## 1
Amino acid sequence: MKITPSKLNTYLMFKLPSAYFCGVRTKFLDSNKCIVTVKYRWINQNPFKSLYWAVQGMAAELTTGALVMKKVQESGKPISMLIAKNNASYSKKATGRIKFECVDGHKIEQSINKAIETGEAQSIWMNAKGVNSEGIEVSDFNFEWTIKLRSK
């Protein structure tokens, strides 16, 4: 099955329903970039009338994770993936539609090849930035993905 934005959104509905019901949606995915959006609504708000930090984290994680999933699938190898670490910073109240974008797809292929060659786990730091409809950055997320060839 080829990974596409619509298939990722269906996957969310069945496997990550909290993200789906909060409005997290994949809008674009290619080999190097993924865009995910989420709109501030009653169901995903915090007490300060902005988008709850965890909802921002779900959207940001999906931008990076979708790229890793796509590259793992394209490799045709049994590779596991897991987040080892993450950090985030918030710079502005997140209201309206927030667009999260990751353009770090180019980092993944080399790590996958090295994991296959050496049999050792590899890690990749990937960044996702959230911007509002005015193009102003509201949050910045970093995720350390670990990938490892599964033993047979």
## 2
Amino acid sequence: MSLTILIPTRNEQSIIGKTIENITKSKIKELNYEIIIINDFSKDNTSKIVNKIKKKNKRIKLFKNTQPGLGSAIKVGVKKSIKEYVCIYMADQSDSVADLIKYYKYVKKNNLDAVFGSRFISGSKVKGYPLKKLIFNRIFNNMCKIFFLNNYNDYTNAFKIYRKEILISFFPIVSENFNVFLELPLKTVSRNFNFKIIPISWTNRTKGKSKFIIKELTSKYFFTFFYCWLERILLKK
């Protein structure tokens, strides 16, 4: 088994170096992996920092996004990947490297199409989650759970692992922003791919500025929700 760790990034000069270091110095160095950084039109020194790091580590690759937005960044990263599985990993260190390794081992052992981490089940740990964002998260994710008749309760979390070929089958990706992280698991569920749910940890960023703005993204999430719900209905016909 082989793994691409896909990290979309925009204006993360204060943290991207440490994020990469945390991964490369972990036990993942024993595995067959590559790290792909997609620079999503950063206006700071993010690209310069990554270029400096990748000169010392051939497993690290840097590509420019073709058009602004996380949806495009994910699409570019998947296309550039040369590994069997792709794990989307956030640049802000909110995701756990230990969970990343757990994903790898779990999907390898069980030959799954995907593994979905949940921050809101027994065994999970969440630190510093903003209250307003948490309320929106719980309402929206439970709505997804009901409408898609599934026990998963953390669809909007970006940190998941997928078999590369199923991600390619999801193209074209219609979501442009953070809602892409909703589109991918909803399509996984609707198209009956084989996945498992496990508890994970999440820690709020301590450096840099979050790009997630609820007021700007609410309509985008509902667009993706109804798009995938309609697809689910049509697939049943």
